[in-house]
């Protein structure tokens, strides 16, 4: 779980994290190499494939994740992206990637009452990286990854305002 505050409005933050092909996330999130929409089910539900570069001094090989992704905007302005692993005929495992699994996870961009240029970003990650990684490697990888997510997001949205 990650929880932090980012200076711009929820709409600006959402532009950086929303799960869309060609979106800004592949530009700033060092853990997202590519993001593809494999199938659009409805306006707010799609099946997506995310690939990651190798990580942790190349101890962790590139991964791919296939998820059903749901997005929603609530009346109070909160924006949500939720995902969970799914098998999909259009996305068989690729030889150059280890197939990882996302258990139910998501990101919220939450408006802060009275502070229109500040957003609470609440994230939940439950990921099985797959492959043959020692649990100690996995446990040491995730805290730095979550901290990096927030640090890089803050830098990315700051350049939007520059």
TrEMBL record:
Keyword Transport listed: yes
Pfam families referenced in this protein's UniProt entry, alphabetically: START
GO molecular function, one term: cholesterol transfer activity
UniProt-listed PROSITE patterns: START
Positions of the START domain: 1-162
Keywords per UniProt: Lipid transport, Lipid-binding, Transport
SUPFAM superfamilies on file: Bet v1-like
Keyword Amino-acid biosynthesis carried by entry: no
UniProt name for this protein: StAR-related lipid transfer protein 5
């Amino acid at each position: 779980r990650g929880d932090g505050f980012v200076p711009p409005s929820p709409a600006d933050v959402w532009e950086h994290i929303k799960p869309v092909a060609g979106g800004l996330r592949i530009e700033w999130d060092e853990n997202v190499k590519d993001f593809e929409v494999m199938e659009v089910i409805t306006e707010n539900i799609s099946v997506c494939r995310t690939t990651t570069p190798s990580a942790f001094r190349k101890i962790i090989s590139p991964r791919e994740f296939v998820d059903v992704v749901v997005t929603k905007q609530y009346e109070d302005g909160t924006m949500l992206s939720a995902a969970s692993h799914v098998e999909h005929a259009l996305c068989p495992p690729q030889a150059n990637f280890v197939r990882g699994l996302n258990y139910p996870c998501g990101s919220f961009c939450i408006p802060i009452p009275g502070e229109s240029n500040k957003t609470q970003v609440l994230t939940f990650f439950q990921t099985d990286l797959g492959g043959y990684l020692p649990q100690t490697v996995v446990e040491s990888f995730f805290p730095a990854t979550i901290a990096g997510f927030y640090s890089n997001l803050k830098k990315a949205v700051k350049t939007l305002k520059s």
